[in-house]
Amino acid sequence: GQQVMQIPQYQHVQEGEDFTTYCNSSTTLSNIQWYKQRPGGHPVFLIQLVKSGEVKKQKRLTFQFGEAKKNSSLHITATQTTDVGTYFCAGLRTGGGADGLTFGKGTHLIIQP
Amino acid sequence: DTGVSQDPRHKITKRGQNVTFRCDPISEHNRLYWYRQTLGQGPEFLTYFQNEAQLEKSRLLSDRFSAERPKGSFSTLEIQRTEQGDSAMYLCASSINRGAAAFFGQGTRLTVV
Asked: How many CB atoms lie within 10 A of CB A62?
């Protein structure tokens, strides 16, 4: 079955440093979504990427979708304490009838002030 | 509140007992998903509904699990003869169409003792 892998599992940064998490799928994806989960909270949708090579920005966050639609990355510039949480990528398989998202294990972002 | 709501938020049950969880999706969303999340892992897809039809079930959904969405609105997830391995956060999400952002509820945390 489809697998989505994320690295690193944990990332410790000093406040103000940059952060990147990488996501790789074993199969080509229809789209990829990113979610953030705060400690004790539920996943919250951040963004969706659909096109090969797509790049989207949200303030300090930059999301990329690979040319082969099998990998993606999230980069945060100048982290702030509000960025703490776990960042998940989630892939949607190609083809109709397969609606469930396959999530990676997430990258836990820990920020030291 | 127009978000996804889940009830109960917490459930402690003895092994062998049956439990039922409820999810109320965002009203205009016709797709409803159930996921399970254990500590340190990403959400794992269990099943999804389009309106009242259950269209996809994961291999994780053993025959002790059953889900319904009788009128295409709220959904229930029942676990029969609970086992300790069923202890997890059960998350419900809804979306407006395939591949769209999934909006998660706050989850039901199940502890089987």
From this structure: 15
Distance from CA of A43 to the nearest CA of B (A): 6
DSSP letter for each residue of A78-96: S--GGG-EEEEEEEEESST
pLDDT tens for each residue of A81-99: 999 999 999 998 876 556 7
Strands A19-25 and A4-7: antiparallel
> Does B31 sit within 8 Å of A98, measured CB to CB?
no
pLDDT digits (tens, 9 = 90+) for B41-89: 999 999 999 999 999 888 888 999 999 999 889 999 999 999 999 999 9
Is A10 an 8 Å CB contact of chain B? no
* CB atoms A101 and B102 under 8 Å: yes
Please name every residue paired with B51 in a beta bridge, in sequence order, or none if there are none. none
